[in-house]
Amino acid sequence: MTTLQEIARQIDAILGDDTREIASAQSTAALEEIRLRVLGKKGRLSLLMRTMKDVPSDERPAAGKVANEAKEAVLRAIEERRAQLREQEIAHAVRTEGVDVTMPGIRPRLGALHPITRVRRRIEDIFLAMGFRIELGPDIEDEHHNFDALNFPPEHPARDMHDTLYLATDLLLRTHTSPVQIHTMKKYAPPLAVIAPGKCYRSDAADATHSPMFHQVEGFMVDTNIRFSDLKGVLGEFVHSMFGYDTPYRLRPSFFPFTEPSAEVDILFRRRRADGQVVEKWLEILGSGMIHPNVLRNCDIDPEKYTGFAFGMGIERIAMLRYGINSMYSFFENDVRFLAQFV
Ligand code: PHE
């Protein structure tokens, strides 16, 4: 017959021997061995628990309590020692395996502005510095603002379904930023010096130099006595600020329905080839001209009193020249290897 006394005696022995051993265990592996020896299926304490049924029933609750407390004490001792050993093992690994705690961590990947946004802001800064302000117009226009008010004749090819993305009868995605001229001149009286950046759309298949969506910056100035020389001065300042003061530029006669006379601006683009030879080429960067009297009249501005100039440039084209990018695809593919170069 096992008695409470007998149980208590055995437990004292277990606690005495085993907790001493636990406290001096030299590795987590040794600790695990002790744990199994005491608390494992055939462990000393587990076997003792099994004799509990032989304890007289009046003593059994007390015996059970003693045994459970002993089990918890052993587990506590194991956990304490395990934490100590873990710390020692880490400290040892740091010393012997040469972990370099001064090594930099993993750098977080930072986002950056898209090259089109960077160039747009640069263009804006140049014109803001010359006293222009920014106006924005809607991407969805009607034929009046995109074509008629800009003096496009009814049979102009740009109005063709194949060139323009129509949403419904008389609703289309603007093909240029020039309709912002109309919105602004109807809303405000001269003097005006405005730039209008934004998205434009054309029914073009995407290739290296075309995209159905692209960006333009429109600009225009209207006042008494605005002359062609003002246009040349403003655009010359833009070319020099954007591409450097040693960049030659030229104005070449052109045609737009909404300007008369009209001119395209070319810059002399210099590039050093892989073989070291410098190649020069005139490249068109924008369209411009004196605002057609019909356009002023369409906005209730008297062309006998006021004159003005206007220009429009593609941001992608400026960005391609500035950064030496040769495909329009690059801007919209969202390849991080490309985009990460503009930080
Ligand atoms: N809107 C013209 C285009 O998209 C550019 C332009 C704007 C030309 C203003 C002259 C004046 O090609």
Question: In words, what does this structure look like?
Answer:
This protein is an alpha+beta fold. It folds into two domains: 4-97; 115-342, BirA Bifunctional Protein, domain 2 (2-Layer Sandwich), CATH 3.30.930. 42% of the residues lie in helices and 22% in strands. It has twelve helices and ten strands. The strands form two sheets. It has a seven-stranded mixed β-sheet, with helices on both faces. A hairpin with a 5-residue loop joins β8 (259-272) and β9 (278-291). The mean pLDDT is 92. The structure holds phenylalanine. Phenylalanine (PHE) binds at residues 176, 178, 218, 256, 259, 287-289, 310-312.
SS strand fraction: 15-25%
- Radius of gyration based on Cα positions: 41 Å
Nearest-integer average pLDDT: 92
* Main beta-sheet annotation: 7 strands, mixed
Number of distinct helices: 12
Name given to the CATH homologous superfamily of the largest domain = Bira Bifunctional Protein, Domain 2
The CATH class of the largest domain is Alpha Beta
Structural class: alpha+beta
